[in-house]
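Chain A, query sequence.
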Amino acid sequence: QVQLVESGGRLVQAGGSLRLSCAASGRTTGAYAMTWFRQAPGKEREFVGGITWRDGDTYYADSVKGRFTVSRDSARNTVYLQMISLKPEDTAVYYCALSTSSRYVPISVTESYDYWGQGTQVTVSS
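Chain A, predicted structure.
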């Protein structure tokens, strides 16, 4: 079993920055990728950005490229989402997810992930 705990969400003004953390515990050995998704009220959960655990390759949604950065601390089993130039449309609950797949799976698809955190609220005021 794996547990994921997100933290760092809060209210921030437009143009501000924020860093989210996702700490993984349990059987994370051999994890394929850890990824951030978000879900705004009345909308479907959407891909934000992710990182492959072995190689550190990163992937981003077009809407956040150049503003958000995903990084990892393998020793701490923690993934970060650094967000700058935040916009009101970034307001959502942000979730991290872990894939334990032993082969390639699409990073941006929710079905690729076996474990999810409880989410952390990010609110960007205009």
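The CA atoms of residues 19 and 119 lie 14 Å apart. The mean pLDDT is 95.
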